[in-house]
């Protein structure tokens, strides 16, 4: 018999699929006539529908944020450390909604889905989507769930961009936005990393201009390399040094090009595993959504002016060793919020884990996050 599930877990959860038949106009000018979103929910919606929290995922994330899909599953959802009874997002108080975004490859309509208009897979014909497109689709999901206003929209990394965009696109439908390990726009270096990843995928001979399914193949090598590049940027030099150092897999150099160092072996393993579970076209799409995000763009680059339309309060958290979305980027966002006279709470968390720090429950991170969400709960009577 499997071990009992942890007492602070949301327990067994079952994904749900929501169907949308109203056409969704996208920023690229194209239209999705019909689409589906896969969703998980934790906790209970109160009578006034005032205690709902939306969880927005990062690049390779999905709807399974907490709990377990079966009693035999030993790996919990990707943010189980923060969602559940007694955790920062306490499911005894909040109704939590987590979804797989449009363009994803874990059940929501995306490149690996069948186009209902043609009967064939979308593949590379799936339109490029933006953070604003995701927020618009999430607003329709909120309508289906009977949620007029989120108590908070919460996300890390690319998820934090969605939380920020919610505050601008639907200011009347969000009380709080938690923007964690994120940025108001990518730096040139970040765009460069994404381009290297895309080139790794598109130059794979098995990519076939995105029609690899039609050719009964997969661009595993390209996706593996893309993930390896990305994974390096999610970790700090200190955390990689602590975990691997310069340790060899065996006791002596082999003077060849196989994986001799532990870190090489780790990166190859992570890349290979990812290439078996993630869709290459989705990876291209997600990185482009990252590149395009820039709420200040339509305001002449003035972020403070862009934020003047927001009404909610903000929590902004950064991590000291995050060099992908460095604390300076969060501080830039906070300064713009202050200039726009928005209410904001900010903390830089001293943690050694790099960008992945938002996934790891270090004490100060947990304390700050919990204190803020406790205030959210009190405000909505949860």
Automatic annotation (TrEMBL):
It is found in: Cytoplasm. Pathway: Amino-acid biosynthesis; L-methionine biosynthesis via de novo pathway; O-succinyl-L-homoserine from L-homoserine: step 1/1. Keywords: Acyltransferase, Amino-acid biosynthesis, Cytoplasm, Methionine biosynthesis, Transferase. Residues 51-359 form the AB hydrolase-1 domain. It catalyses: L-homoserine + succinyl-CoA = O-succinyl-L-homoserine + CoA. Pfam families: Abhydrolase_1. The record marks 324 as: Important for acyl-CoA specificity. Its EC number is 2.3.1.46. Signal peptide: none annotated. GO terms for biological process: homoserine metabolic process; methionine biosynthetic process. Its main location: cytoplasm. The keyword Amino-acid biosynthesis applies. One of its GO terms (molecular function) is homoserine O-acetyltransferase activity. It comes from the Bacteria. The keyword Cytoplasm applies. SUPFAM superfamilies: alpha/beta-Hydrolases (SSF53474). GO terms for cellular component: cytoplasm. Substrate binds at residues 227, 356. The active site is at residues 157, 322, 355. Belongs to the AB hydrolase superfamily. MetX family. Transfers a succinyl group from succinyl-CoA to L-homoserine, forming succinyl-L-homoserine. Homodimer. PANTHER family: HOMOSERINE O-ACETYLTRANSFERASE. This is Homoserine O-succinyltransferase. It comes from Marinobacter psychrophilus. The lineage of its organism: Bacteria, Pseudomonadati, Pseudomonadota, Gammaproteobacteria, Pseudomonadales.
